[in-house]
């Protein structure tokens, strides 16, 4: 598994982390000092806002988990990857893909998300 693939796996694990302290520790380790997360549902600027955004997603979709759907495609300091959200071991209810840029240390600096499949 590539380094970028592992980073994305840790990123998705942070989205699944329901313990607030553990989630924040993961965010602090994975993201730069002033990161930005953007998707069709909103914008989160800074680690505090990203933490709140993830907590809100967990509240909206309780019991569902994010998982990678395929291999990460990456070059230079940019990666794109498809993810799914659904019950553990079940069919995905939501599918999307993210484009991430990294700093020189490999931390997420900006993630732009797109939604390909959403519940009707």
Keywords:
120 residues; alpha+beta
Summarize the structure.
This protein is α+β, with helices and mostly antiparallel strands and 120 residues long. It has three helices and seven strands, in the order H-H-E-E-H-E-E-E-E-E.
Overview of this structure, please?
With 120 residues, the chain is α+β, with helices and mostly antiparallel strands. Helices cover 32% and strands 42% of the residues. Strands 1, 2, 3, 4, 5, 6 and 7 form a seven-stranded mixed sheet that branches. Helix 1 runs antiparallel to helix 2 (20-30) and helix 2 packs across helix 3. The mean pLDDT is 96.
Rg, please? 13 Å
Secondary structure tally: strands: 7
Count of alpha and pi helical runs: 3
What about the largest sheet? Answer: 7 strands, mixed
Our measurement of the CA-to-CA distance between the termini, rounded to an integer number of angstroms, reads 35 Å
- Average pLDDT score: 96
Residue share in β-strands = 35-45%
Which series of helices and strands comes N to C? HHEEHEEEEE
Q: Mind sketching the topology for me?
A:
Elements: H1 3-16, H2 20-30, E1 31-39, E2 42-45, H3 47-60, E3 64-68, E4 73-75, E5 78-87, E6 94-102, E7 108-117
Parallel strand pairs: 1-7
Antiparallel strand pairs: 1-2, 3-5, 4-5, 5-6, 6-7
Helix pairs in contact: 1-2, 2-3
Domain SnoaL-like: 8-108
InterPro entries: NTF2-like_dom_sf, SnoaL-like
Protein name: Nuclear transport factor 2 family protein
């Amino acid at each position: 598994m590539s380094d970028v693939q592992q980073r994305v796996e840790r990123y998705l694990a942070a989205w699944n982390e329901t313990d607030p302290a553990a989630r924040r520790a993961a965010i602090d380790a994975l993201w730069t000092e002033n990161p930005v997360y953007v998707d069709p549902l909103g914008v989160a600027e800074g680690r505090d806002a990203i933490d709140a955004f993830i907590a809100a997603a967990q509240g909206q979709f309780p019991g569902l988990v994010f998982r990678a759907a395929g291999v990460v495609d990456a070059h230079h300091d940019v990666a794109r990857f498809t993810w799914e959200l659904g019950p553990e071991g079940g069919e995905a209810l939501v599918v999307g893909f993210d484009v991430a840029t990294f700093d020189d240390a490999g931390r997420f600096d900006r993630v732009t998300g797109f939604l390909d499949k959403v519940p009707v």
